[in-house]
Design goal:
By secondary structure, this protein is an alpha/beta fold. Helix content is 31%, strand content 17%. It has one domain: Rossmann fold (3-Layer(aba) Sandwich).
Length: 282
């Protein structure tokens, strides 16, 4: 049985110490200075307390798990497989329904990728319906993606936030708005994603997105992404939901699965794999 088949079969059958926003006069990544730069300071001790990826010297289970997962994504983004994908360095991270661990996965992937020696990572809170990265990392609501799409912010650099973690930048979700589907499907959004994807050859972009089933915004985000990671909660996510979620994605995308909240103490139980149009185990 392939890794992906194992991941599907585990679905439930049917029936540094404080976090803050501060002004920062440092240049935006690679030397471009945004008009009103800010820094989000992430509490590294809190990351460790939550068993998230850290840059501490000791090896940890979480760090090892996400090293295994990120390698597949980075290979598709920057290796030979990147020629087969459109926007290979834009990765949609989603789930079938809420509370399956997609934001936890998004943040940990970003933290792990920020440890790479020759890559940078931009984490976007694209779950504009129910943003949660700020709550997880401890920063207050602030201007972000929606504000830029509305035209309230003229330069995307104004909502790209540096962090105290080298090589990691963030774009918050921004203001709540009732037309988020239309904003995300706008020409302004498409042009933004193309600009972010192509400006720097070493950058990978992670979109923490709403669940796939029942939320129209996610399919719009998928249309500008080359890869998708679907987070599956062990013994809870019905197999039918996984199948339904996959059918909502473009068959040309590279699609992977993360088996989350596994009771077994092995990173291999994340059940991660990729395929083009279909899926193969690793």
């Amino acid at each position: 049985m392939s890794t992906i088949e194992k991941a599907l079969s585990k679905g439930k059958p049917e029936s540094t110490n404080s976090t803050s926003l501060t002004n920062n006069s440092n240049e935006e990544e690679h030397g471009v200075t945004p008009p009103h730069a800010h820094t989000i300071t992430i509490d590294l001790n809190e990351l460790a307390r939550k068993s998230m990826v850290t840059n501490r010297t000791e090896r940890s289970r979480t760090n090892e798990e996400y090293r295994f997962i990120k390698r597949k994504i980075l290979t598709n983004a920057f290796g030979k497989a990147s020629n087969l994908l459109t926007n290979s360095n834009i990765v949609l991270i989603s789930s079938t329904h809420p509370n399956e661990g997609k934001t936890f996965t998004s943040i940990n992937l970003a933290l792990s990728m920020a440890l790479e020696q020759d890559k940078t990572v931009l984490l976007i809170d694209a779950d504009v319906v129910n943003p949660s990265i700020g709550a997880e990392l401890g920063y207050d609501s602030t201007s972000g993606l929606v504000d830029y799409l509305l035209g309230n912010v003229s330069d995307i650099g104004q909502v790209i936030y540096h962090t105290n973690i080298d090589k990691l930048t963030l774009i918050p979700a921004g203001s709540r708005h009732h037309l988020t589907h239309e904003l995300l499907s706008s020409v302004r959004m498409e042009e933004l994603m193309q600009e972010l994807a192509s400006r720097y050859p070493d950058r990978i972009i992670l979109l923490d997105s709403p669940p796939l089933i029942g939320v129209s915004e996610t399919q719009v985000l998928a249309s500008v992404s080359g890869q998708a990671v679907i987070v599956v909660e062990e013994n809870k996510t019905p197999t039918s939901n996984i199948t339904k979620a996959v059918k909502l994605l473009d068959k040309e995308m590279a699609i992977g699965f993360v088996l989350n909240k596994s009771a077994e103490n092995s990173f291999q139980n994340y059940g991660y794999g990729y395929g083009y149009g279909n899926y193969y185990g690793l």
